[in-house]
């Protein structure tokens, strides 16, 4: 999933919050869960924290979590 504003110009991140990204990850996981019973979620850096947050949601279809270099906390 390409996170909103990520990978573009710096100004694209001016009005994006981590909650926007969390909603996008949740949407992607719910969409994928319609096609498969279980899946692995992997995130790097901030994506690792988003993957962990998603894995903690009840009734998800995540069978395994790989979180590479996640931050210790997210400041909004």
Tally of DSSP β-strands: 2
Summed up, the helix count is: 2
Give the proportion of residues in helices.
25-40%
Shape: globular
Structure write-up:
With 76 residues, the chain is an alpha+beta fold. Helices cover 34% and strands 17% of the residues. The chain has two helices and two strands, in the order H-E-H-E. The chain has helices at 18-33, 46-55; strands spanning 39-44, 62-68. The protein has a two-stranded parallel sheet with strand order 1-2. Helix 1 packs across helix 2. The chain is globular and about 40 Å long. The model has no long low-confidence stretch (mean pLDDT 90).
Layout of secondary structure:
Elements: H1 18-33, E1 39-44, H2 46-55, E2 62-68
Parallel strand pairs: 1-2
Helix pairs in contact: 1-2
What attributes does this structure have?
alpha+beta, globular, 2 strands, 76 residues
Give me a quick take on this structure.
By secondary structure, this protein is of the alpha+beta class.
